[in-house]
DNA sequence: GTCGATGCCTCGTTAATCGATGCCTCAGTG
DNA sequence: CACTGAGGCATCGATTAACGAGGCATCGAC
């Protein structure tokens, strides 16, 4: 039998991290840019506040799913540049699979007539 | 502009309530049956523990999205039968729409190449 | 008689989000 | 010059749902 998944311990707590990791597969970026990118590509459906973003980045750092280095932004400002690690890519794949599985199950229930 | 939605304040906190409401559109049911139904129709992908279920049902009661009455289960056991209210149906529609919108946005980001 | 299923519920912990706040720099504007 | 808004970083505290672990009762089967 597949893993049973408690509703939220998998659905939300990790969604933001997953989106950050996905963004970083496009190349290194700093926090502010990650947040604005996610908002832009979602047509402003998603909101990514700094108080959610930076704690999430720190969790990613702790797990070695991203690495950080101080550098400069496109506008020559001081910025912390994040880069996804190979472990981060594995994690992203796992989370994306889990997300699809759970939201698929929920969507199927919602669409049932 | 559409409502901007913070990632999790909408995605998870309410998902279980939404699934309960959806289950009750099939007809009145008691808590234990709701939980088992959700697990069964999701092929055990979802897990619905009692310690998540009953608090969720109480929140639904407080908002008058469901009504409850003591009765009997199919096995003639004492059981609390829940019934969805018109307000509950409205709420379900709203939550389902929000769920689709957010998961759609996330899925689009994940599928981007 | 004991075990598993059916049924209800609560307590305490955990963990992520999020609003508010703070600090710094720079460009533009009045 | 002073001010404001955008670009950048970060933390603190409150909130809030979920969840594991319990507790209690009945019933049928072994």
In short:
The structure is a homodimer of 113-residue chains. Chain A has a single domain, classed as Arc Repressor Mutant, subunit A.
How is this fold's topology laid out?
2 copies of one chain form a homodimer.
Chain A: E1 5-6, H1 7-11, H2 15-24, E2 29-30, H3 31-41, E3 46-47, H4 50-62, E4 66-72, E5 78-84, H5 86-111
Antiparallel strand pairs in A: 2-5, 4-5
The structure holds a DNA duplex (30 and 30 nucleotides).
Q: What would you note in describing this structure?
A:
The structure is a homodimer of 113-residue chains. With 113 residues, chain A is of the alpha+beta class. Chain A has a single domain (5-111), classed as Arc Repressor Mutant, subunit A (Orthogonal Bundle). Chain A is 58% helix and 18% strand. Chain A contains five helices and five strands, in the order βααβαβαββα. Chain A has a three-stranded antiparallel beta sheet. In chain A, strand 4 and strand 5 (78-84) form a beta hairpin. Mean pLDDT of chain A is 89; it is low at 1-10. Strand 1 of chain A pairs parallel with strand 3 of chain B, so a sheet runs across the interface. Chain A binds a DNA duplex (30 and 30 nucleotides) through helix 1, helix 3, helix 4 and strand 5.
């Amino acid at each position: 039998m597949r893993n049973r998944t408690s509703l939220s311990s998998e659905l939300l707590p990790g969604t933001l991290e997953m989106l950050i990791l996905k963004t970083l597969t496009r190349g290194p970026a700093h926090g502010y840019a990650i947040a604005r990118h996610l908002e832009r590509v979602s047509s402003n459906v998603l909101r990514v506040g700094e108080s959610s973003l930076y704690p999430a980045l720190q969790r990613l750092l702790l797990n070695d799913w991203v690495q950080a280095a101080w550098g400069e932004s496109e506008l020559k400002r001081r910025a912390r540049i994040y880069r996804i690690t190979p472990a981060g890519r594995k994690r992203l794949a796992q989370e994306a699979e889990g997300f699809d599985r759970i939201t698929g199950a929920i969507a199927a229930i919602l669409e049932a007539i």
